[in-house]
Amino acid sequence: MNQDLLHPDRLFPIDPKARGVARELYGLVSDFPIISPHGHTDPRWFSEDESFSDPVSLLLTPDHYLLRMFYSQGFRMEDFGVYEKGKLGQEDKREIWRRFAENFHLFRGTPSALWLKHVFHEVFGLNTPFNKSTADEYFDLISAKLTLPEFKPRALFDRFKIEVLATTDAPFDSLDAHQKIKDDWGRRVIPTYRPDSVIDPEHEDFHHNMQLFAESSGEDVFSWKGYLRAHETRRSFFKAMGATATDHGHESALTVELSDLRAEELFNKIVHNQFTPADARIFRAHMLWKMAELSQDDGLVMQLHPGSYRNHNNSLFTRYGRDKGADIPTRMEFTENLRALLNSFGNNPKFKFICFTLDESAYSSELATLAGHYPAMKLGPAWWFHDSPEGMIRHRKATMETAGFYNVTGFIDDTRAFLSIPARHDVSRRIDARILSELVCEHRMGMDEARELIVEITGRLARKAFNL
Known about the structure:
Layout: H1 16-29, E1 34-36, H2 43-48, H3 55-60, H4 64-72, H5 93-102, H6 111-123, H7 135-145, H8 153-159, E2 162-166, H9 176-184, E3 189-190, H10 196-199, H11 206-217, H12 224-240, E4 245-248, H13 260-271, H14 277-298, E5 301-304, E6 308-309, H15 314-320, E7 328-329, H16 339-345, E8 353-355, H17 362-371, E9 377-379, H18 389-399, H19 421-441, H20 447-465
Helix pairs in contact: 1-19, 1-20, 6-19, 11-12, 13-14, 14-16, 18-19, 19-20
C-alpha cells in the first residue's frame, strides 16, 4: 500500500503519545461488523444481485457531494452523467470518468476524498494516485472487477462485514425487494418507514402519493380516520418485514398537538387543496406528534432530522429533480419546537426518539441538553454535511459534557453510495479513537474506560438505540 494515499495513522493525533493510544483503541474495533441503521441504498441491489454496470453510474452520478462541488466550479450536470428529466445521456462513460479524474483535486481536504481513496485502494486495490494520467487505468480495472462474482452486491455486503443495513422506503412501497432478500438470502437488509411524501402537503407529488398510499393500505386515505388507519396498517407491515424505525425529514422541528376536531378540519383543507403555507406547517407539526404517538404504541424508533432547506436551487430542481446537491443547512430551534412531543412522550420508556441536526449551533445549547435529560431522546451523530473528521470532532466536543457518550447514538453513514459505507465507518472509528486518546492523555479518562467505551460506541449504542 502506498502510505501517501492511505496512511495507517490517518486522522490520529499528531502528538506521539496520544497517537499510540489512538492506534490501540482503533485496533480494538477496526474489524468490528458494521451496523448501518440509517441509509439510502437500493434494496434491489441485494434482491437481484446483479453486477454494477460501470464506475460512473456506481461512484459518480448518484453522489450529490461530488455533483455539488463540480456544479460550484461551473461544470454542467451533464458533464458528470446527470441529465434533465426525460432526457437520455449520450456522452461516453469513459469521457465522463476522465473529466472526473482530471478534476479530482477539487476534493482535497474533503471527506469525499477520504472516502473515495478508501474505495479505490481498499475495495479495488488501486495504489496509484487518481488523476488525469491514471483515469483510464482506474476505469478499466474497476470496470473489469465489477464483472466478477466477488464484486456483486451480496458478495460485497459480506466482504464489508455488514451485520445490518437499513434502507429508507416510501410508505406505499411494496417491499418486494426486502421479501426476496428474506426468502433467498437471509441477510439483515431492513426497511425504514419514511412517510414524508404523504405528510407534506407541499410535496410536488403529494396527491399522486396519496393515491398510492390508498392502494397499498386499502384505506380511504382522503378521510382523516382512514388516513390514520393507513399509517397504522403500513407501519405494521413494515415492522413485520423487519423495520425497527421510522424516519422524518421535516423542514423544522415544530411539533403540535391538535384536538381531533381541529386535526380533521385541517386535514380536509389539505386534501381539498384549500390550504395555506401556514396550514401545511401546522399539519406537518401535528403529524410529527401523531407519528410519535404511534411509535409509543408500536415500538418503532422515531428519527427526526430537520434543518435542511431542500432544493434551494429552483432551476436545478425543475430541470434535474431532487438530491442534486442543492440542499442547504439552516438554523433551527428545538427547545420550544419539540416541547409538545417531549412533554407527551419523552418520559415514556416505551418511546425512542432520535434527533439529528445540520445546525451545529444547537449541539450544546439545545440538543445535547435535551438528550441529556429526556429518557426517550437520543442525539444522532455528526451527520450529512458534518459527516467529516472535523465535523465529528466538533460534535463530540460540543455534546459530551452534557449528553455524555451514552445519550448519543452510534455512527450512521446515511448514504446512497454503497461502496463508501466501510470508508465512512472507518473514519468514524478513527475519530472516536482520537477523541478518546486525548481524554486518556489529559488524564480525564482511564485507559480501561476508553477501551470499554470505544467498543460501546462502535457497536452496542447503535444496536440499542435502533432496537437492533
